[in-house]
Amino acid sequence: MKLLILEAGHCLSLALAREANRRSDTELTIEPGLTATPRLLEEIRPDALVIPPLLRPITAEPAAVTAHAEAVEACMEACHEAEIPLVWCVSDQLYEDGLDVPIDEHVIPEPRDESLRRLIRTGDRIRAEYPRHLIVRLGPLFALDGSQAWLGELLDTLTDGGEVRAESDVIFCPTSADAVAMALIGMLQQQHCGAESWGSYHLAGPEPVSAYTFVSMVRTQLATRLEGRGEQVTLGSVKALSHHHDQPLRRVLNCRRVLDVFGVHQKPWRLEVGRMLDTWCMARDDGEAQEESMSR
To answer: Domain 2-141+175-206+252-267: which CATH class?
Structure first.
Protein backbone atom coordinates (compact mmCIF):
# COMPACT_ATOMS: atom_id res chain seq x y z
CA MET A 1 0.00 0.00 0.00
CA LYS A 2 1.27 3.42 -0.96
CA LEU A 3 0.28 6.52 1.03
CA LEU A 4 0.84 10.21 0.35
CA ILE A 5 1.22 12.21 3.57
CA LEU A 6 1.16 16.00 3.70
CA GLU A 7 2.97 18.36 6.14
CA ALA A 8 6.25 16.52 6.57
CA GLY A 9 7.13 18.22 9.87
CA HIS A 10 3.82 17.48 11.59
CA CYS A 11 4.09 15.22 14.64
CA LEU A 12 1.58 12.81 13.08
CA SER A 13 3.48 12.70 9.78
CA LEU A 14 6.66 11.78 11.64
CA ALA A 15 4.77 9.10 13.57
CA LEU A 16 3.41 7.68 10.32
CA ALA A 17 6.94 7.55 8.91
CA ARG A 18 8.17 5.66 11.98
CA GLU A 19 5.30 3.19 11.75
CA ALA A 20 5.79 2.64 8.01
CA ASN A 21 9.50 1.98 8.56
CA ARG A 22 8.58 -0.88 10.89
CA ARG A 23 6.44 -2.54 8.25
CA SER A 24 7.04 -4.12 4.86
CA ASP A 25 3.53 -3.55 3.51
CA THR A 26 3.40 0.25 3.55
CA GLU A 27 5.24 2.82 1.46
CA LEU A 28 5.08 6.53 2.24
CA THR A 29 5.65 9.63 0.18
CA ILE A 30 5.69 12.73 2.37
CA GLU A 31 5.24 16.24 1.01
CA PRO A 32 6.47 19.28 2.96
CA GLY A 33 3.38 21.42 2.44
CA LEU A 34 -0.39 21.07 2.50
CA THR A 35 -0.88 20.82 -1.25
CA ALA A 36 -1.73 17.80 -3.38
CA THR A 37 -2.22 18.84 -6.99
CA PRO A 38 -3.83 16.58 -9.60
CA ARG A 39 -0.43 16.31 -11.27
CA LEU A 40 1.21 15.13 -8.02
CA LEU A 41 -1.51 12.55 -7.44
CA GLU A 42 -1.14 11.32 -11.00
CA GLU A 43 2.62 10.94 -10.61
CA ILE A 44 2.50 9.11 -7.27
CA ARG A 45 -0.85 7.29 -7.61
CA PRO A 46 -1.17 6.70 -3.84
CA ASP A 47 -3.79 4.40 -2.38
CA ALA A 48 -4.82 7.24 -0.08
CA LEU A 49 -3.95 10.85 0.75
CA VAL A 50 -3.56 11.59 4.47
CA ILE A 51 -3.89 15.13 5.86
CA PRO A 52 -2.74 15.63 9.49
CA PRO A 53 -4.92 17.76 11.76
CA LEU A 54 -4.69 21.45 12.41
CA LEU A 55 -3.85 21.14 16.09
CA ARG A 56 -5.34 23.58 18.60
CA PRO A 57 -7.61 25.35 16.11
CA ILE A 58 -9.33 27.23 18.96
CA THR A 59 -6.16 29.27 19.55
CA ALA A 60 -4.95 29.35 15.93
CA GLU A 61 -5.06 32.56 13.90
CA PRO A 62 -8.26 32.78 11.81
CA ALA A 63 -6.17 33.15 8.66
CA ALA A 64 -4.36 29.89 9.43
CA VAL A 65 -7.65 28.06 9.98
CA THR A 66 -9.06 29.41 6.72
CA ALA A 67 -5.90 28.47 4.82
CA HIS A 68 -6.07 24.93 6.23
CA ALA A 69 -9.74 24.55 5.29
CA GLU A 70 -9.15 25.81 1.75
CA ALA A 71 -6.16 23.51 1.31
CA VAL A 72 -8.18 20.50 2.48
CA GLU A 73 -10.99 21.33 0.05
CA ALA A 74 -8.48 21.64 -2.81
CA CYS A 75 -7.07 18.24 -1.85
CA MET A 76 -10.57 16.78 -1.80
CA GLU A 77 -11.25 18.08 -5.32
CA ALA A 78 -7.96 16.62 -6.57
CA CYS A 79 -8.68 13.28 -4.89
CA HIS A 80 -12.19 13.23 -6.36
CA GLU A 81 -10.79 13.81 -9.85
CA ALA A 82 -8.13 11.10 -9.44
CA GLU A 83 -10.46 8.71 -7.53
CA ILE A 84 -8.03 8.50 -4.62
CA PRO A 85 -9.36 8.11 -1.06
CA LEU A 86 -8.97 11.11 1.25
CA VAL A 87 -8.15 10.89 4.96
CA TRP A 88 -8.58 14.12 6.91
CA CYS A 89 -7.69 14.15 10.59
CA VAL A 90 -9.36 16.85 12.71
CA SER A 91 -9.06 18.07 16.28
CA ASP A 92 -11.63 17.31 18.96
CA GLN A 93 -11.65 21.07 19.65
CA LEU A 94 -14.28 21.40 16.93
CA TYR A 95 -16.63 20.21 19.69
CA GLU A 96 -16.14 23.62 21.22
CA ASP A 97 -18.69 23.29 24.04
CA GLY A 98 -18.16 19.59 24.64
CA LEU A 99 -20.96 17.24 25.74
CA ASP A 100 -21.93 15.66 29.05
CA VAL A 101 -21.71 12.15 27.55
CA PRO A 102 -19.10 10.58 25.22
CA ILE A 103 -19.52 12.05 21.74
CA ASP A 104 -20.54 9.64 18.97
CA GLU A 105 -19.36 9.91 15.35
CA HIS A 106 -22.77 10.95 13.98
CA VAL A 107 -22.74 14.09 16.15
CA ILE A 108 -21.58 16.89 13.85
CA PRO A 109 -19.80 19.66 15.79
CA GLU A 110 -21.67 22.96 16.03
CA PRO A 111 -19.07 25.45 17.31
CA ARG A 112 -19.86 29.10 17.92
CA ASP A 113 -16.45 30.32 16.79
CA GLU A 114 -16.44 31.43 13.15
CA SER A 115 -13.02 29.93 12.42
CA LEU A 116 -14.13 26.54 13.72
CA ARG A 117 -17.34 26.78 11.70
CA ARG A 118 -15.16 27.20 8.59
CA LEU A 119 -13.67 23.77 9.27
CA ILE A 120 -17.16 22.32 9.75
CA ARG A 121 -18.14 23.57 6.31
CA THR A 122 -15.13 21.78 4.87
CA GLY A 123 -16.26 18.55 6.52
CA ASP A 124 -19.78 19.07 5.16
CA ARG A 125 -18.37 19.45 1.65
CA ILE A 126 -16.35 16.26 1.93
CA ARG A 127 -19.33 14.26 3.18
CA ALA A 128 -21.57 15.66 0.45
CA GLU A 129 -19.21 15.49 -2.52
CA TYR A 130 -16.83 12.57 -2.07
CA PRO A 131 -17.93 9.33 -0.38
CA ARG A 132 -14.46 7.74 -0.39
CA HIS A 133 -13.23 9.61 2.65
CA LEU A 134 -12.27 9.06 6.26
CA ILE A 135 -12.76 11.99 8.62
CA VAL A 136 -10.86 10.96 11.75
CA ARG A 137 -11.49 13.06 14.85
CA LEU A 138 -8.62 12.92 17.33
CA GLY A 139 -8.05 13.85 20.94
CA PRO A 140 -5.17 16.22 21.78
CA LEU A 141 -2.10 14.66 20.14
CA PHE A 142 1.12 14.20 22.04
CA ALA A 143 4.53 13.14 20.74
CA LEU A 144 8.19 13.82 21.38
CA ASP A 145 8.98 15.52 18.09
CA GLY A 146 7.40 17.31 15.18
CA SER A 147 5.35 20.48 14.96
CA GLN A 148 3.07 21.01 17.97
CA ALA A 149 4.36 17.83 19.65
CA TRP A 150 2.72 18.57 22.97
CA LEU A 151 4.75 16.18 25.10
CA GLY A 152 8.05 17.37 23.68
CA GLU A 153 7.08 20.97 24.45
CA LEU A 154 6.10 20.03 28.00
CA LEU A 155 9.40 18.26 28.67
CA ASP A 156 11.41 21.19 27.32
CA THR A 157 9.51 23.68 29.47
CA LEU A 158 9.68 21.58 32.63
CA THR A 159 13.40 20.78 32.33
CA ASP A 160 14.11 24.46 31.67
CA GLY A 161 12.32 25.32 34.92
CA GLY A 162 9.41 27.07 33.26
CA GLU A 163 5.85 27.14 34.52
CA VAL A 164 3.19 25.14 32.67
CA ARG A 165 -0.41 26.31 32.89
CA ALA A 166 -3.21 23.85 32.18
CA GLU A 167 -6.98 23.81 32.64
CA SER A 168 -8.27 21.76 35.54
CA ASP A 169 -11.84 21.89 34.23
CA VAL A 170 -11.41 20.75 30.62
CA ILE A 171 -11.72 16.97 30.30
CA PHE A 172 -10.46 15.20 27.18
CA CYS A 173 -8.62 12.09 25.98
CA PRO A 174 -4.91 12.72 25.27
CA THR A 175 -3.93 10.75 22.19
CA SER A 176 -0.53 9.36 21.26
CA ALA A 177 0.55 10.31 17.73
CA ASP A 178 2.29 6.92 17.46
CA ALA A 179 -0.94 5.12 18.37
CA VAL A 180 -2.88 7.14 15.80
CA ALA A 181 -0.30 6.33 13.12
CA MET A 182 -0.53 2.61 13.85
CA ALA A 183 -4.34 2.73 13.79
CA LEU A 184 -4.54 4.77 10.58
CA ILE A 185 -2.25 2.44 8.66
CA GLY A 186 -4.20 -0.55 9.92
CA MET A 187 -7.50 1.02 8.90
CA LEU A 188 -6.18 1.93 5.45
CA GLN A 189 -4.76 -1.55 4.93
CA GLN A 190 -8.27 -2.91 5.49
CA GLN A 191 -9.73 -0.33 3.13
CA HIS A 192 -7.08 -1.23 0.56
CA CYS A 193 -8.22 -4.86 0.83
CA GLY A 194 -11.80 -3.91 0.03
CA ALA A 195 -13.43 -3.03 3.37
CA GLU A 196 -15.06 0.12 1.88
CA SER A 197 -15.94 1.35 5.38
CA TRP A 198 -15.82 5.07 4.66
CA GLY A 199 -17.14 7.85 6.87
CA SER A 200 -16.31 9.51 10.19
CA TYR A 201 -14.46 7.84 13.05
CA HIS A 202 -13.28 8.88 16.48
CA LEU A 203 -9.77 7.90 17.50
CA ALA A 204 -8.65 8.92 20.98
CA GLY A 205 -7.40 7.43 24.20
CA PRO A 206 -9.63 5.51 26.64
CA GLU A 207 -8.76 7.59 29.72
CA PRO A 208 -10.55 10.95 30.06
CA VAL A 209 -8.49 13.36 32.13
CA SER A 210 -8.17 17.07 32.74
CA ALA A 211 -5.38 18.98 31.05
CA TYR A 212 -3.97 19.84 34.49
CA THR A 213 -3.92 16.21 35.64
CA PHE A 214 -2.26 15.10 32.41
CA VAL A 215 0.50 17.70 32.70
CA SER A 216 0.96 16.95 36.41
CA MET A 217 1.30 13.23 35.71
CA VAL A 218 3.90 13.93 33.01
CA ARG A 219 5.86 16.03 35.51
CA THR A 220 5.66 13.29 38.16
CA GLN A 221 6.81 10.56 35.79
CA LEU A 222 9.61 12.78 34.48
CA ALA A 223 10.82 13.56 38.02
CA THR A 224 10.78 9.86 38.92
CA ARG A 225 12.88 8.93 35.91
CA LEU A 226 15.39 11.73 36.41
CA GLU A 227 15.80 10.85 40.10
CA GLY A 228 16.29 7.21 39.17
CA ARG A 229 19.09 8.27 36.86
CA GLY A 230 20.72 10.24 39.67
CA GLU A 231 20.03 13.60 38.03
CA GLN A 232 19.32 16.63 40.19
CA VAL A 233 17.02 18.74 38.03
CA THR A 234 14.66 21.39 39.38
CA LEU A 235 11.59 20.98 37.22
CA GLY A 236 9.19 23.77 36.45
CA SER A 237 5.85 24.00 38.23
CA VAL A 238 2.35 23.25 37.00
CA LYS A 239 -0.43 25.77 37.61
CA ALA A 240 -4.12 24.91 37.40
CA LEU A 241 -6.42 27.17 35.41
CA SER A 242 -10.20 27.27 35.72
CA HIS A 243 -12.39 28.73 32.98
CA HIS A 244 -15.62 26.74 33.39
CA HIS A 245 -16.78 27.46 36.92
CA ASP A 246 -20.24 25.87 36.73
CA GLN A 247 -19.11 22.43 35.56
CA PRO A 248 -16.13 20.98 33.68
CA LEU A 249 -16.18 21.06 29.89
CA ARG A 250 -16.08 17.43 28.74
CA ARG A 251 -14.69 16.74 25.28
CA VAL A 252 -14.61 12.95 25.35
CA LEU A 253 -14.88 11.03 22.08
CA ASN A 254 -16.70 7.71 21.91
CA CYS A 255 -14.40 5.44 19.91
CA ARG A 256 -16.63 2.37 19.77
CA ARG A 257 -17.17 2.52 15.99
CA VAL A 258 -13.47 2.28 15.10
CA LEU A 259 -13.30 -0.81 17.29
CA ASP A 260 -16.42 -2.41 15.83
CA VAL A 261 -15.48 -1.73 12.19
CA PHE A 262 -11.68 -1.98 12.16
CA GLY A 263 -10.86 -3.73 15.44
CA VAL A 264 -8.79 -0.77 16.64
CA HIS A 265 -8.29 -0.65 20.41
CA GLN A 266 -7.35 2.66 22.00
CA LYS A 267 -4.02 2.87 23.81
CA PRO A 268 -4.04 4.29 27.37
CA TRP A 269 -2.20 7.61 27.44
CA ARG A 270 -0.38 6.71 30.67
CA LEU A 271 1.33 3.76 29.00
CA GLU A 272 2.21 5.82 25.93
CA VAL A 273 3.60 8.67 28.03
CA GLY A 274 5.72 6.20 29.98
CA ARG A 275 7.06 4.64 26.79
CA MET A 276 7.87 8.04 25.30
CA LEU A 277 9.60 9.19 28.47
CA ASP A 278 11.76 6.08 28.34
CA THR A 279 12.63 6.95 24.73
CA TRP A 280 13.36 10.55 25.75
CA CYS A 281 15.72 9.36 28.51
CA MET A 282 17.56 7.05 26.11
CA ALA A 283 18.01 9.92 23.66
CA ARG A 284 19.26 12.06 26.56
CA ASP A 285 21.85 9.38 27.39
CA ASP A 286 22.94 9.22 23.75
CA GLY A 287 23.28 13.01 23.63
CA GLU A 288 25.38 13.10 26.79
CA ALA A 289 27.61 10.27 25.54
CA GLN A 290 28.15 12.11 22.27
CA GLU A 291 29.09 15.33 24.12
CA GLU A 292 31.59 13.42 26.24
CA SER A 293 33.23 11.81 23.21
CA MET A 294 33.51 15.17 21.47
CA SER A 295 35.13 16.80 24.51
CA ARG A 296 37.91 14.21 24.72
So the answer is: alpha beta
